[in-house]
Write a structure and sequence with these properties.
371 residues, alpha/beta, SH3 type barrels, Elongation Factor Tu (Ef-tu), domain 3, 3 domains, 8 helices, 17 strands, 24% helix
C-alpha cells in the first residue's frame, strides 16, 4: 500500500485531498506545517489564518474524523529565511514578489519532501487544483527515469498550476493532486457528505503572513527604517509629488499617490537607486517584451529556435500569445507578447503554457520595451 504524506492546512481543499486518498486505499499521514507565528496584536481575522493554532486544530479534527495519523512540523525558521526575508528584500529592491511560489519551491516541495523520505513515504499530496501525467515508473527520490507533465486543473476558476511551475520533474513525479479533476463546489459537497468539520470553512485570499493585505505595515515592522519618503516624477522627469516609501507601491498602482489631475496617474517604474517613483497614464503601463530569469522547465523546449506559446504574468490573468526566445544566460529567457500587456511587474512570475500543459516559467527581471 503506497504511503502518502498529505499536507493539511486546516482548509477544505487539503482536507478533501486527504479524504480522497484514503478512500483510494493509500496509507495516508496528515502533516500540518507551522510556518509562521501571527503576532498576538494582529486582528482576529489574521489569527484565524492558515498559520494559526486554530488551523492546526482544524487539521487535527479532520485527521481524527478520517482516522489517520497527524503530525505538526515546525518549518518556521526555514520559512522566514526563504520566504519572508525574500519577500522583504524584494520589496526593498522595488520589486513585487510572489511568496506563495517561493513557499512551494522551498517549503512544500523541498523540506516537506525531505520529511517524506524520513517517513518512508512514496508520495506527498496537496490540495492544489492542478493535474499531472506521468509516463513510466516514479519511485520516490529517484529522478531522471520518468517523464512527467503538469497541466491546468479541470476547474479553470480555481486552477493553481501557475504557482507550481517551479517544481522539478522529480518533485512533480512524487506529488499527488487529488483535486485536479474536480471542481470547487464538488470539493465542498464531498466534505459535507463525509461530515468534515471544515466543509463550510471560508478560504483565505491573502498572503498568510501579511495582516489584512497591509504589506507596507508588515515591511515596516520587519525592516525598521525601510519606509524612506522621496519624490514622485513624471516620465518626463518632472517632480510632481512625494511618496511615503517605496515599500507602499507596486507597478500599476493608482491609489495612494495623492496627485490631483484631470486624468489618473499610475506607478510605471520604481527606482530604489533614486528612492523615486515614476508615474504615467494608463497607456504607459503597457509593454510587450521582457526578460525572465531563474527559469525552470518542466517540459523543456527545443531552443534551437524561438517558439510560440501562451504566457501569463499574474495569477488572475488570462494566458496571452507570445514568442519565447533564449536569454543571455542558461536560466533566462526573453518573452515578447503578440499584443502589449498591462503592468508587467518585476518580481512576479511569468508562466508558459502549451494548451493545458505548463511548460515552465521564471521570475520577471525587467521590461525591455513599451507598447
Amino acid at each position: 500500500m503506497p504511503r502518502v504524506l498529505a499536507a493539511m492546512s486546516g482548509g477544505v481543499d487539503s482536507s478533501v485531498a486527504a479524504l480522497l486518498l484514503r478512500e483510494e486505499g493509500y496509507d495516508v499521514i496528515g502533516i500540518t506545517m507551522q510556518i509562521w507565528d501571527p503576532l498576538p496584536t494582529l486582528s482576529r481575522k489574521v489569527a484565524r489564518g492558515c498559520c494559526s493554532l486554530e488551523a492546526v486544530r482544524d487539521a487535527q479534527r479532520v485527521a481524527e474524523k478520517l482516522k489517520i495519523p497527524h503530525y505538526v512540523l515546525n518549518f518556521r525558521e526555514i520559512f522566514k529565511e526563504k520566504v519572508v526575508d525574500d519577500f522583504c528584500d524584494e520589496y526593498l529592491r522595488g520589486r513585487t514578489p510572489n511568496p506563495c511560489i517561493r513557499c512551494n519551491e522551498f517549503i512544500k516541495f523541498d523540506h516537506l519532501l525531505a520529511r517524506a523520505r524520513e517517513l518512508d513515504a512514496d508520495f506527498i499530496a496537496t490540495g492544489h487544483y492542478a493535474r499531472k501525467m506521468t509516463r513510466g515508473s516514479c519511485p520516490m527520490f529517484n529522478p531522471g527515469i520518468q517523464s512527467v507533465s503538469l497541466y491546468r486543473g479541470k476547474d479553470k476558476r480555481k486552477d493553481q498550476s501557475y504557482f507550481l511551475y517551479c517544481l522539478k520533474p522529480w518533485q512533480l513525479s512524487t506529488t499527488l493532486f487529488p483535486l485536479g479533476d474536480i471542481r470547487k463546489e464538488e470539493t465542498r459537497a464531498i466534505a459535507a457528505r463525509a461530515g468534515l468539520p471544515v466543509a463550510d470553512k471560508k478560504e483565505s485570499q491573502e498572503i498568510c503572513f501579511v495582516p489584512d493585505k497591509k504589506y507596507g505595515e508588515f515591511l515596516q515592522r520587519c525592516r525598521p527604517g525601510a519606509a524612506k519618503p522621496g519624490y514622485i516624477y513624471s516620465l518626463e522627469g518632472k517632480k510632481i509629488g512625494e511618496h511615503q516609501g517605496l515599500i507602499f507601491y507596486t507597478i500599476g498602482q493608482r491609489k495612494g499617490l495623492k496627485i490631483y489631475d484631470s486624468q489618473p496617474y499610475y506607478v510605471v517604474k520604481i527606482s530604489p537607486d533614486e528612492n523615486a517613483i515614476y508615474v504615467g497614464r494608463e497607456k504607459d503601463l503597457y509593454a510587450s517584451e521582457f526578460m525572465v530569469n531563474r527559469v525552470n522547465w518542466i517540459s523543456p523546449p527545443d531552443f534551437s529556435v524561438s517558439f510560440e506559446a501562451k504566457v501569463k504574468v499574474r495569477y488572475q490573468m488570462r494566458e496571452q500569445p507570445a514568442v519565447i526566445m533564449p536569454g543571455d544566460s542558461p536560466d533566462s529567457i526573453c518573452i515578447r507578447f503578440n499584443l502589449p500587456q498591462r503592468a508587467i511587474t518585476p518580481g512576479q512570475a511569468a508562466v508558459i503554457y502549451q494548451g493545458e500543459e505548463v511548460m515552465g516559467g521564471g521570475t520577471i527581471e525587467r521590461v525591455l520595451s513599451k507598447s
